Amino acid sequence: MYTEKDNLYWKTFSDSINAQFMERKYWYSPKAIHLYKGFAVVFDNYFFSSTVGTRSYESLLTRVYCKFTYPQSLKIRIEKASFLNRLVNLFHGNLYRTLDREFDRQYHVHTMNPNTCVFLLPEIRRSLLDLNIEGLFIDTQDGIWGEQLTDNEYEVAIYVEATQLKQSELVALKELFEGILDALCDKFQIRTALTSFDRHQTVASL
Description:
Distance between the termini: 33 Å
Structural class: alpha+beta
Strand content: 25-35%
Oligomer: single chain
Helix content: 25-40%
Radius of gyration: 17 Å
């Protein structure tokens, strides 16, 4: 599915931000792994498919995600206010209003605990709108839609419905994501988590 062109694309971005580059492997996208204040922030592409009733949905995405640890419940789903997302999120917590009229018109925020939303600073909401972010999740699944993580492990992720973004757009995603991590550290004192990339480096150094 992914080609040498994708390798070159993510290698170029990795070099531009001094990140670790991982080549494509099997059906997995190449990755740029950026270290920010001890957090391993992953950039890659993902093929997403979903079926709700008789409707099916497929899309190629650019996603940014990062694992962290936190001892309490901290889940949220923020997605574009579409009919499909309303169906998918029907049982994913209560719909929360930020009282930001433009943001609430374009996004649905689902959470069981409204206090989770305190990290959504005005500048973060503005960037989500300006960069046309399709979704922002904090959950306990790997890569948004993957395997269940271990106890107290969470992942924060954003994604856009596009691939082969301009390098400047990737940098803008990086700056937004760093702002989200800063806000989570400030509001919840989240901690870094040992990732599969860390484990791979540890084994390789032995």
